[in-house]
Amino acid sequence: MARQVVVLGAGIVGVSAALELLDRGYDVTLMDRKFPGEETSYGNAGVWTRSSLVPINNPTLWKNLPKFVSNRTTALRYYLPFLMRNLNWTFRFLMNARQSKVLETAAALDQLISLSMQEHMRLLAASGEQQRLSEKGWMFLYRTQSGFEASQFARDIFDHFELDTEILNADQISDLEPSLNRIFTAATWIKDAKSIDNPGALVAGYGKLFLAKGGKFVQKTVQSLSDLSTTSGGWKVIADGGDSFVSDDLVVALGPWTPHILKSIGIDVPMGYERGYHMHFRSANGGHLQRPICDASGGYVLAPMEQGFRLTTGVELDACDAPGKLNQFEQAVSSAKEAFPLSGPVENSPWMGRRPTLPDSRPIIGAAPKRKGLWLAFGHQHIGFCTGPGTARVLADLMTGQSPPIDAKPFCAERYLR
Ligand SMILES: Cc1cc2nc3c(=O)[nH]c(=O)nc-3n(C[C@H](O)[C@H](O)[C@H](O)COP(=O)(O)OP(=O)(O)OC[C@H]3O[C@@H](n4cnc5c(N)ncnc54)[C@H](O)[C@@H]3O)c2cc1C
User: Fold this and answer.
1) What is the pLDDT of residues 2-21, one digit of tens each?
2) How far is it between the farthest Cα atoms of the chain?
3) 315 alpha carbon to ligand 1 midpoint, in Å?
4) Are 412 and 398 contacting, i.e. CB atoms less than 8 angstroms apart?
5) Residues in contact with ligand 1 (CB, 6 Å cut-off)
6) pLDDT (tens digit, 9 = 90+) per residue, 22-77?
7) CA-based angle 289:121:28, to the nearest 5?
8) For residue 1, with 0-12 CB atoms within 10 Å meaning exposed, 13-18 middle and 19 or more buried, which class applies?
9) What is the pTM of this model?
10) Using an 8 Å Cβ cutoff, are 292 and 185 in contact?
């Protein structure tokens, strides 16, 4: 009989893990309160890029702290009571911004990103979703020379890891993106970055592939977990309505909500929530973008999507499910209007999501310490839409006793969990 596994969470991480485990011969049940790809994996900017190897807690964060203290920048906002309640996370997040730690994290993330890009290409072909892919790269744009110079740290890391980049001047930016207003003096073009025109639809497409291959999907809200190792063995998931599901192995891939559920078995996770907003806009005068752009000075990303131009904001540090606040989003919209001819919004209000971030900006992938049959895959911060499939490959190798194609140690749970 095939070994049974329940995968909790049908974001990009859970769906990819479910698919990979099905391919390895497991009897897989995927469970989520919503349909695949309707939460964080829906609302992101759709960018897959090796340039995401630089975590946001890097030495420039220390340099910019005086600027961020004002709590008015579009790039970073915080809710002080949340940071105070989570001093353990805040302190460790800042300490991990030192150069030596960042280089270690960048090396680990680069491996995971590169593996994930290969795995995504395989899944794109298998799910018939290739038409969603664009391979024109993406750009960091700077309005001033000093802004460009302030980003030298990231460019040094790009060079160290031999990313395919090109520095552009104002004319070259206009040649590549003629609809942008001429307010940018320099850009870093990440030439081999890829992007997707509807991240939620892509995850839904991977979900359909899972069902077509014989996977089972259950739409339920998980309430708690129970370790059956001292009785029958395996794990029990208790869901809404009192329903329960028992399996040999359990994978927890609940993204930002993972700590809520792990708490039910006494596991505390030091999680930060880098919340972000998005809304789609139309363009005036038929303006278009060839690729997603990050206006580093303006603190937002603008990505051409199926639904319109998706404007995503920078970081807002607050509790996972605290009500949304609009000032950072409104500031980002004004900034974006200086750069691109945006017209009327497509929706009435912005979407809000949470980037789930551990103090060292690396996800946890692998076995939970001292809990046989419990496997973890969460904490993918700004890069989970890209790194879900690589995570699945590493996790499935660890679950089946094989050597993963990349070093899994930087992602082990023992970093934070006992
Ligand atoms: C504004 C923004 C922009 C981003 N841009 C990018 C980008 O360009 N590129 C990139 O790679 N990444 C990007 N990200 C990050 C990326 O979206 C996330 O890292 C990734 O989606 C996390 O995937 P996940 O599967 O872990 O979580 P999710 O997609 O959130 O999946 C978790 C699932 O768990 C389910 N769930 C939660 N609790 C329960 C429960 N109790 N019972 C049942 N189900 C439950 C939820 O319904 C959800 O479907 C961005 C994020 C944001 C917010």
Assistant:
1) 999 999 999 999 999 999 99
2) 69
3) 15
4) no
5) 9-14, 32-34, 38-41, 43-47, 221-222, 253-257, 261, 276, 278, 312, 353, 355, 378, 380-386
6) 999 999 999 999 999 999 999 999 999 999 999 999 999 998 888 899 999 999 99
7) 125
8) exposed
9) 0.98
10) no
